[in-house]
């Protein structure tokens, strides 16, 4: 069972029946705790709010000193600039499209490769199963800056530098370990007896998997795919070292490239960041039940 | 029966003996074949994209190969390794990385656990609070880095603006040696405190209520309950979160690249960033590979620790 945010909500208060603390009054302490939480929440959320605010400010308000918190002129120009450049699509919007393609295809591939493997690891007594699984997870922990050196040479050999296919391959490779670990948890939750029963009815093991287990796994597959999508979407190191042209570059290096010049259009950076981050937040909200498992790469589920 | 494929054995919980085997082939064999067919594509991809590159890097680390100069690589044996292990530059980066990892992970752990504890004591609005607190963690490091760079800007950054209206002095956050590393730690803490919080919260809500009830019958003090019930039960999970963060922090590259590019001077150059400079700006591919292999060794040790605790947690 994954401990989820929802579950954290639905369980009652931890200490319903305890007597109020003796030193503080129970109420005073509660007020103090709420105040503390509010302050912390404001600190945590302020940068996000500031980013959104900057993205809808006019340029002179963006650079105003002292900073303007409320009385600024609202404009959507920055968002327009993200998508439209003078006479056509902007380089940024192309990079967003590239990101959609690369993240999408690599997620599909990782799912197609990872889900059957997870099922096999869950159902069959594979030799040295634990070692294999740990090996798989540890490949995900390799420092990307180190891995990218030989990958760069390898891609140069095969002509994969600065191609979407190259990025898709490497993203698939780093999402497969996650998919296997995450999906194995979901497969473990589906009783193997379902398949055994189907096989008694004359189905082969493969048919039993396809017709009975897979449909039950669909919600888990969706959640896993969403996480893989987020990981690929946010990835930066491989993208910046393995691609260079505007036609191939994904959004993270493209957005980072906005601060390369002598003057930085922070309004545009903010708008691009908002456009880039919004889908992630929406998707993350959709899979909030599985966040604990997702962010630990499928390792922690209780 | 011979065993042509060494990868798998038959399923131990098989009830297959209850049914007559399908004509032509035994189910056992098809299970084995199925396992191989399902697992090997994924493993092959990992071998090609993770293991093979690392082996190649291992080979290059013993040579003086340079990606730009081209030409054949000459074997130099352990020269690259001794050069790196004895380099004062590398020692400095290792120290920077250590300060960063310890500082950031310690801050995140304390803050994250505190927030989780406070949230777990609330009755209402827990879902909303948790969701709000989790936002920074889901953002890309690029977005986080860019945004803090803007906020920490010495001239028109909002942080200095706020300090100014409080009557405090301006701080050059990213362009002074000492404050730059602190800024890096603060930004990383801002982003990853939610991670620790999320996992600590999972641990805290899993503590059985009856333990607290029993303790309150015994009139145990709050601190005593925290120390003897809450902490021991949450600690194993928290430790995994901490190790996970430590590995991630050790690999850190994106944030340094965006926020400070290692500067001012080399005050925020982590090991990852230094490897990048050696490999892609200095083009000493051989040296960079040796450097990378040494980093991989550290990651492997940390990962082994992580997996060991994970295993322990799963067995309990």
UniProtKB/TrEMBL annotation, chain A:
The keyword Transmembrane applies. PROSITE patterns: ABC_TM1. Residues 1-22 are annotated as: Disordered. It is a multi-pass membrane protein. Residues 96-287 form the ABC transmembrane type-1 domain. It is found in: Cell membrane. One of its GO terms (cellular component) is plasma membrane. The keyword Hydrolase does not apply. Its main location: membrane. Keywords: Cell membrane, Membrane, Transmembrane, Transmembrane helix, Transport. InterPro entries: BP-dep_ABC_trans_perm, MetI-like, MetI-like_sf. The chain crosses the membrane at residues 31-52, 96-121, 133-155, 167-187, 208-233, 266-287. One of its GO terms (biological process) is transmembrane transport. Belongs to the binding-protein-dependent transport system permease family. This is ABC transporter permease. It comes from Planotetraspora mira. The lineage of its organism: Bacteria, Bacillati, Actinomycetota, Actinomycetes, Streptosporangiales.
TrEMBL record, chain B:
Pfam families: BPD_transp_1 (PF00528). One of its GO terms (biological process) is transmembrane transport. It is a multi-pass membrane protein. The chain crosses the membrane at residues 34-59, 98-120, 127-148, 181-204, 224-244, 288-307. InterPro entries: MalF_N, MetI-like, MetI-like_sf, Sugar_ABC_transporter. PROSITE patterns: ABC_TM1 (PS50928). GO terms for cellular component: plasma membrane. Keywords: Membrane, Transmembrane, Transmembrane helix, Transport. Residues 94-306 form the ABC transmembrane type-1 domain. Residues 1-27 are annotated as: Disordered. Its main location: membrane. It is found in: Cell membrane; Membrane. Gene3D superfamilies: MalF N-terminal region-like (1.20.58.370), MetI-like (1.10.3720.10). PANTHER family: GLUCOSE IMPORT SYSTEM PERMEASE PROTEIN GLCT, TREHALOSE TRANSPORT SYSTEM PERMEASE PROTEIN SUGA. Belongs to the binding-protein-dependent transport system permease family. This is ABC transporter permease. It comes from Planotetraspora mira. The lineage of its organism: Bacteria, Bacillati, Actinomycetota, Actinomycetes, Streptosporangiales.
């Amino acid at each position: 069972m994954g401990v989820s945010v929802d579950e954290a909500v639905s369980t009652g208060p931890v200490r319903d029946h305890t007597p109020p603390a003796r030193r503080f009054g129970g109420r005073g302490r509660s007020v103090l705790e709420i105040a503390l939480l509010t302050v912390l929440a404001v600190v945590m959320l302020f940068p996000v709010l500031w980013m959104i605010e900057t993205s809808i400010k006019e340029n002179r308000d963006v650079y105003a000193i002292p900073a303007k918190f409320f009385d600024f002129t609202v404009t959507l120009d920055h968002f327009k600039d993200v998508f439209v450049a003078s006479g056509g699509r902007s380089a940024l919007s192309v990079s967003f499209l590239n990101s959609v393609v690369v993240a999408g295809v690599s997620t599909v591939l990782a799912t197609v490769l990872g889900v059957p493997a997870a099922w096999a690891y869950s159902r069959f007594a594979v030799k040295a199963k634990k070692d294999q699984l740990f090996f798989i997870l540890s490949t995900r922990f390799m420092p990307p800056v180190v891995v990218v050196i030989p990958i760069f040479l390898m891609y140069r050999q095969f002509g994969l530098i600065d191609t979407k296919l190259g990025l898709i391959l490497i993203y698939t490779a780093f999402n497969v370990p996650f998919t296997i670990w995450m999906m194995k948890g979901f497969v473990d939750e589906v009783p193997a007896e379902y398949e055994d029963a189907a096989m008694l009815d004359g189905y082969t093991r493969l048919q039993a998997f396809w017709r009975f287990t897979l449909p039950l796994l669909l919600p888990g597959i969706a959640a896993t795919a969403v996480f893989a999508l987020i990981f690929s979407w946010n990835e930066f190191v491989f993208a910046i070292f393995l691609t260079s042209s505007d036609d191939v570059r994904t959004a993270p290096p493209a957005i980072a490239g906005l601060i390369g010049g002598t003057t930085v259009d922070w309004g545009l950076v903010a708008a691009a960041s908002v456009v880039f981050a919004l889908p992630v937040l929406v998707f993350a909200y959709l899979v909030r039940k599985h966040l604990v498992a997702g962010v630990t790469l499928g390792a922690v589920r209780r | 029966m011979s065993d042509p494929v060494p990868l798998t054995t038959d399923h131990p919980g098989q009830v297959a003996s209850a049914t007559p085997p399908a004509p032509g082939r035994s189910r056992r064999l098809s299970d084995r074949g199925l396992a191989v067919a399902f697992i090997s594509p994924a493993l092959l991809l990992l071998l090609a994209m993770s293991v093979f590159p690392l082996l190649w890097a291992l080979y290059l680390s013993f040579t003086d190969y340079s990606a730009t100069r081209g030409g054949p690589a000459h074997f130099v044996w352990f020269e690259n390794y001794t050069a790196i292990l004895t380099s004062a530059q590398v020692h400095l980066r290792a120290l920077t990385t250590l300060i960063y990892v310890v500082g950031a992970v310690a801050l995140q752990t304390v803050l994250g656990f505190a927030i989780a504890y406070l949230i777990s004591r609330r009755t209402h609005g827990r879902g909303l609070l948790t969701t709000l607190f989790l936002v920074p963690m889901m953002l890309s490091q690029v977005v986080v880095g860019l945004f803090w760079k803007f906020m920490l800007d010495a001239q028109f950054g909002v942080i200095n603006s706020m300090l100014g209206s409080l009557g405090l002095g301006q701080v050059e956050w990213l362009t002074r040696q000492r404050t730059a590393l602190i800024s890096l730690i603060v930004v990383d803490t801002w982003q990853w405190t939610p991670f620790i919080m999320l996992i600590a919260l999972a641990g805290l809500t899993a503590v059985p209520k009856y333990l607290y009830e029993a303790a309150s019958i015994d009139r145990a003090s709050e601190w005593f309950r925290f120390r003897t019930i809450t902490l021991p039960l949450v600690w194993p999970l928290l430790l995994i979160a901490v190790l996970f963060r430590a590995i991630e922090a050790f690999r850190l590259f994106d944030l340094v690249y965006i926020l400070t590019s290692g500067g001012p001077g080399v005050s925020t150059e982590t090991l990852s960033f230094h490897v990048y400079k050696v490999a892609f700006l200095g083009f000493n591919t051989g040296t960079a590979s040796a450097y990378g292999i040494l980093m991989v060794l550290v990651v492997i040790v940390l990962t082994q620790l992580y997996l060991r605790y994970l295993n322990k947690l799963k067995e309990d």
